[in-house]
Amino acid sequence: MPLWSQSISYHVGLKVYKVTPSPDSRTIAQLETALTQMLEVIEENFERRLLEQILGETDEVSTAQLRTLRFLASLPLGNTGFPVGSIAEGLRISYPAATKAVDRLTERQLAERHRDAGDARSIRVRLTTRGRELTERLSLERRAALAEVLQKMGGDKPAVALLRLLEEFIAHSQTHSF
C-alpha cells in the first residue's frame, strides 16, 4: 500500500491529529508523464500498429476509429448495434467525429449501418463478421505483445504487481469526484 494512502496519527496533548501524507509535486509530475506515455504506447504499439498490420493497410487508423471499433466489439453477438448518437455519447466524442469514424470503418468493411427493425427512421451500426473477426484477432495479438513485454519485465510477479496497482488506481479514480 502506498505511503500516501496510510494515515498517520499525531498525539499532541489530549488531541489526536490524523494526517494523510501525499506524494510530492515532482512525483505527481513524473506519474502524469509516465501515464501519458503509457497510454500513447498502448494505443500506438498495442492497437494502431497491430491493427494496421492485420489489415495490411498503410492508411492510419485514427483514435476515434480504434475507440469506435472497441465500443462496437463490446456488443454481444446478435445485438442490433447502436445509433451513431449513442456511439458519440458512449465515447464522449462529437457526433461528427463518431460519424466520420463509422464512415471509415464502413469503408473498410469492418462495420455496417442498417435500419432499426422497430423504427425505420433509426440507423444502427454494428460490426461486420470481418470486423468481429478482426477485433478478436487484435485482442489475441495484443495479449501476445503484452505477454512479451511483461516477460521482459520479469514475468508473473511484476505483472501481478502492476495489475494490482492499476486496479487500485482505477478504483480510486472512479470514486474520486473531479
Q: Which structural class is indicated by helix and strand composition?
A: alpha+beta
State the helix count: 6
The helicity comes to 55-70%
Mean pLDDT: 83
Architecture, according to CATH? Answer: Orthogonal Bundle
Enumerate the spans where pLDDT stays under 50 for 5 or more consecutive residues. 1-5
Determine the CATH superfamily. Answer: Winged helix-like DNA-binding domain superfamily/Winged helix DNA-binding domain
Count of all domains? 1
Order of helices and strands: EEHHEHHEEHH
**CATH-derived topology:** Arc Repressor Mutant, subunit A
Strand content: 5-15%
Widest beta sheet: strand line-up:
3-5-4
Shape: globular
Q: Report the span from N to C terminus.
A: 23 Å
CATH class equals: Mainly Alpha
- What's the alpha carbon Rg, rounded to whole Å? 22 Å
Describe the sheet with the most strands.
3 strands, antiparallel
Count every beta strand, where a strand is a DSSP E run of 2 or more residues: 5
Describe the secondary structure blueprint for this structure.
Layout: E1 8-12, E2 15-19, H1 25-55, H2 63-73, E3 82-83, H3 84-91, H4 95-107, E4 111-115, E5 123-127, H5 129-152, H6 156-175
Antiparallel strand pairs: 1-2, 3-5, 4-5
